[in-house]
Write a structure and sequence with these properties.
It is built from twelve helices and seven strands. It is of the alpha/beta class. 37% of the residues are buried. The structure holds guanosine-5'-diphosphate-alpha-D-mannose and manganese (II) ion.
């Protein structure tokens, strides 16, 4: 095969205005998943808003099936300020933002949604504030005075968001008015410093950054009105609240346990409730005797646990179709062995120390650790 020179291939770069070749002072990270229609619009909006500033745009796309990355590459081919990171086999807003920020060599990095819900005209103001000196982080807030959720969130999401804010303020002593915002700008060195502590899971990257900064970050907030999405649809459902609780607890306990394990445990706890409801329901509703009802309830709880873990704990490795069926069966197997581990450890402890609650708790903890470890190896294997 003959390798053509760039000239022969007709791929010489088109002349670009000198200003666009300047070393970027600001990198704008745009995480995308199925945002094809929004890509050209957001680039145009950023070119307008950032005229006169040496900036670059980095799309971090999780291999969107709608071909978002290809459209972004098309634009990047004619504008050196646009770059694309296409991630294969990985999903997750927080992880995408972290990866994008780490790819930047500019002194300032911003993260914003690619769906035009964020007001890009704030960027120059945020940059000016950070450049002026004494600040590390500028946050565009929908809740600071003058900002608004507008038409951007449904009623249910807005209520969930209120509760989540209150929890963050109580538990983590984070005083931001909108710790859930996906729109902020940082000094780049902070990213290097905090990146090893950040969780790639979930979507609460800002809260994670602020909590990991342990009160050291000097923050300024800018109010803005969250716009309504025009093209495509939101990827965050109400269930992501779970994921958020996991992050809160894990930060509260000083990163001793992983967010994933906490979520797995939260799901497990919800399974106890499901189990009791199913037990009572099948005794009264279906008239089953206790043994049958208990067996049925166990399967119901294992199944809802599987479904929730598949949606939340392992949303980045979510199984579907036949793989999901296979996963469910391995999950049943894992949980059955978990019962043995649980009873075994509880018995052992009870033998030497006959304190029922101690033995019971130790058994349950052993079961949870076993289920978590074994299911991460068998059911939700790393791709
Ligand atoms: N790479 C990548 N991977 N990008 C993602 C993923 C993912 O798994 N999920 C979502 N995104 C991108 C979307 O394409 C969009 O550009 C941006 O992240 C925000 O996602 P949306 O799906 O539009 O989120 P939203 O508008 O419902 O939620 C907004 O409000 C939340 C708080 O209520 C966002 O601003 C969130 O960042 C914010 O936390
Ligand atoms: Mn959005």
């Amino acid at each position: 095969m003959k390798v053509l020179s760039l000239h022969e291939a007709g791929a010489e770069a088109a002349p670009v205005p000198a200003a666009t070749l300047a070393v970027p002072e600001l990198t704008v990270i745009l995480p995308t998943y199925n945002e094809r229609a929004n890509v050209p619009l957001i680039v145009a909006a950023l070119r307008r808003a950032l005229a006169g500033i040496a900036f670059e745009v980095v799309f971090v796309d999780d291999n969107s099936p709608d071909g978002t990355a290809a459209i972004a590459h098309e634009i990047a081919a004619t504008d050196p300020r646009v770059r694309v990171i296409r991630r294969i086999g990985r999903r997750g807003l927080a992880g995408a933002c972290i990866e994008g920020m780490l790819s930047s060599s500019a002194p300032f990095v911003a993260v914003m949604d690619a769906d035009l819900q964020h007001d890009e005209t704030l960027l120059p103001k945020m940059l000016a504030a950070l450049k002026a000196g004494d600040l590390d982080l500028a946050v565009a807030s929908r809740r600071a005075e003058g900002g608004a959720i507008g038409e951007g969130l449904s009623k249910v999401r807005a209520a969930g968001s209120n509760l989540a804010n209150a929890l963050a303020q109580r538990l983590l002593k984070v005083t931001l008015t909108d710790p859930m915002s996906g729109f902020f700008m940082l000094r780049r060195p902070i990213v290097d410093e905090l990146a090893p502590k950040l969780s790639a899971q979930g979507f609460k990257i800002l809260l994670d950054i602020v909590a990991s900064g342990e009160g050291r970050l000097r923050i300024v907030e800018f109010p803005f009105v969250f716009r309504e999405r025009r093209e495509g649809e939101s990827k965050l459902d109400t269930l992501v609240t779970f994921d958020y609780l996991g992050l809160l607890l894990s930060k509260y306990f000083g990163d001793l346990v992983s967010v994933r394990f906490l979520m797995f445990s939260l799901v497990g706890a919800s399974g106890v409730l499901v189990h009791l409801l199913a037990l009572r329901g099948s005794m009264i509703g279906l008239g089953l005797d206790f043994n049958m009802a208990q067996t049925l309830a166990t399967f119901v709880a294992m199944t809802t646990n599987f479904a929730l873990n598949n949606r939340l704990t392992y949303r980045d490795r979510r199984l579907s179709g036949l793989a999901m069926l296979r996963g469910l069966l391995t999950f049943y197997a894992v949980c059955s062995a978990g019962v043995l581990a649980n009873v075994g450890v509880a018995n052992m402890i009870y033998q030497s120390e006959p304190v029922w609650w101690l033995a019971g708790t130790a058994g349950a903890a052993m079961g949870a650790v076993w289920n978590y470890t074994a299911s991460s190896l068998l059911t939700w294997r790393k791709p």
